[in-house]
C-alpha cells in the first residue's frame, strides 16, 4: 500500500547540501574536479639559460640511396652499388686469373715437379712357386737404390752354398744367404731373384732395385742366383721353366727390354765357376742366352 512516506527521500540513497563541497553517492564522498593551475606572472632575474616558449632545432642530413658492401679480397676493396650489384670488372678479372694461375701451379707441382716416392716394384706374379720378400720373412735392407728401367742384360750365377728342394728348407736357406751378405757389407741379399730346387723362385732385392752380385754389371742387369753349388748339384727342369716365366713377366712389366741378352756370371767374370758346370750345360734352355766367352768359365 502506498503511503505518504514513500514520497520522502531516503538517507540510504544520499543527501545533498547547498553549502557543502562534498557530494555523497551511495555513502561515498566525491571530491570536486580540480582546476588546472595557471601562471599569471613569472619573474626571472639574471639568468641566460632560460627559454620561454617553443624551441625549434634545424638538422641538415644528406641521404644517398646507395648500399655499399665492403670486403677485402687479395688486398683489394670490393664495392657493390645497390642498384647494379656488380663487382668492378677489373677486380673480377684479376681474381679469376689469379685463381687459374694458382690452380695450374699446384697441379704442375703435384703431377710433374715434385719427386714421387719410389718403392720396390711388385711384378704381379701370383703363383704358388713365387715367394715375395714378405713370404720368406726378409729382413729390411740397410739401404736401397733403384735401377733405371728397362734393362738390357740378365746375369745368372749360383750361391755355392746348400742346395734345397722343399719350400721351408729354401726359406731357411734364403735367410742364411741374406745374413751372410749383410755381414759382408752388401746392405741386403745380393741378387734380384733366387731360384731353389723344384722351381721355387724368391724375390731377392726385387725387380727395380740395384743388385749386388756382379761388379760393373749390377747397374745395367737383373741378377739371378741358383741356390746351391752346381759344380756338384744338378738343376731340374722346373727351375729353368719357372725362370723363363719370370723373365717373360719382367719383359711385360718393362723391367727388361724384349731383346735382352742373358749371360752366365762366368762369361762376364772370366776364370770363375759361377753358375757351375751343371747349370752352364743347360744354358740353352734360355732363349736369349748368348754363348759369348763361354770358354772363360771354369769347369771345376
UniProtKB/TrEMBL annotation:
One of its GO terms (molecular function) is N-acetylmuramoyl-L-alanine amidase activity. The chain crosses the membrane at residues 91-114. InterPro entries: Amidase/PGRP_sf, Amidase_domain, PGRP, PGRP_domain_met/bac. Residues 128-269 form the Peptidoglycan recognition protein family domain. Keywords: Immunity, Innate immunity, Membrane, Transmembrane, Transmembrane helix. GO terms for biological process: innate immune response; peptidoglycan catabolic process. Pfam families: Amidase_2 (PF01510). Gene3D superfamilies: Peptidoglycan recognition protein-like (3.40.80.10). PANTHER family: PEPTIDOGLYCAN RECOGNITION PROTEIN, PEPTIDOGLYCAN-RECOGNITION PROTEIN LC-RELATED. Belongs to the N-acetylmuramoyl-L-alanine amidase 2 family. This is Peptidoglycan-recognition protein LF. It comes from Papilio xuthus.
Amino acid at each position: 500500500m502506498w503511503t505518504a512516506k514513500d514520497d520522502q527521500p531516503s538517507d540510504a540513497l544520499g543527501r545533498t547540501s547547498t553549502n557543502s563541497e562534498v557530494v555523497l553517492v551511495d555513502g561515498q564522498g566525491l571530491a570536486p574536479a580540480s582546476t588546472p593551475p595557471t601562471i599569471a606572472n613569472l619573474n626571472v632575474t639574471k639568468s641566460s639559460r632560460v627559454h620561454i616558449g617553443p624551441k625549434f632545432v634545424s638538422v641538415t642530413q644528406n641521404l644517398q640511396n646507395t648500399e655499399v658492401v665492403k670486403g677485402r679480397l687479395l688486398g683489394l676493396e670490393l664495392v657493390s652499388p645497390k642498384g647494379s650489384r656488380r663487382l668492378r670488372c677489373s677486380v673480377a678479372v684479376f681474381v679469376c686469373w689469379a685463381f687459374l694461375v694458382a690452380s695450374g701451379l699446384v697441379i704442375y707441382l703435384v703431377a710433374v715437379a715434385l719427386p714421387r716416392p719410389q718403392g720396390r716394384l711388385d711384378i704381379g706374379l701370383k703363383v704358388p712357386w713365387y715367394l715375395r720378400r714378405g713370404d720368406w720373412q726378409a729382413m729390411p735392407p740397410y739401404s736401397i737404390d733403384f735401377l733405371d728401367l728397362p734393362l738390357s742384360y740378365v746375369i745368372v750365377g749360383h750361391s755355392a752354398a746348400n742346395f734345397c728342394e722343399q719350400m721351408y728348407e729354401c726359406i731357411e736357406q734364403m735367410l742364411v744367404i741374406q745374413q751372410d751378405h749383410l755381414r759382408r757389407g752388401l746392405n741386403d741379399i745380393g741378387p734380384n731373384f733366387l731360384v731353389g730346387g723344384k722351381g721355387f723362385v724368391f724375390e731377392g732385392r726385387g725387380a727395380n732395385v740395384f743388385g749386388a752380385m756382379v761388379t760393373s754389371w749390377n747397374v745395367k742387369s737383373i741378377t739371378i742366383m741358383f741356390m746351391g753349388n752346381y759344380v756338384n748339384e744338378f738343376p731340374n727342369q722346373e727351375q729353368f721353366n719357372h725362370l723363363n716365366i719370370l723373365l717373360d713377366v719382367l719383359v711385360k712389366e718393362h723391367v727388361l727390354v724384349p731383346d735382352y741378352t742373358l749371360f752366365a756370371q762366368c762369361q762376364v767374370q772370366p776364370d770363375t765357376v759361377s753358375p757351375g758346370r751343371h747349370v752352364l750345360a743347360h744354358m740353352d734352355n734360355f732363349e736369349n742366352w748368348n754363348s759369348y766367352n763361354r770358354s772363360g768359365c771354369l769347369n771345376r
